[in-house]
Amino acid sequence: MVDVTLETWSPSPVIRKVGNGYARMPASSYADAAARLTARQAVFYRNLIRIAEAVGGGNLPVDFFLPSGEHMYLDRGCIRIAELGGFVKPLHDDDAGVVSSIELGWSV
Length: 108
Prior knowledge:
Largest sheet: 3 strands, antiparallel
Structural class: alpha+beta
Order of helices and strands: EHEEEHE
Strand order of the largest sheet: 1-4-3
Number of helices: 2
Number of strands: 5
Strand content: 5-15%
């Protein structure tokens, strides 16, 4: 569980509720191209910083539960753009062959 207040973005959320089709993906499936900093991506970055503060470090889960019980996940396109921009370290698969966490690109 991550006890955090998240900033929202509409109409395309940067952190989404997990639905029936959700599954973690391998790093090779994160295919978005590099992009300039947009207001939406800035909201994503601010949320990553909030999550890092809540978990007490720079290793962040790609999906997590809020205190309300909602299961949430980080937008994959935003993750990939953050990786390409150096905001997070290069994505890597865990022992199950999927990305389960991301790491901020600097020490916390």
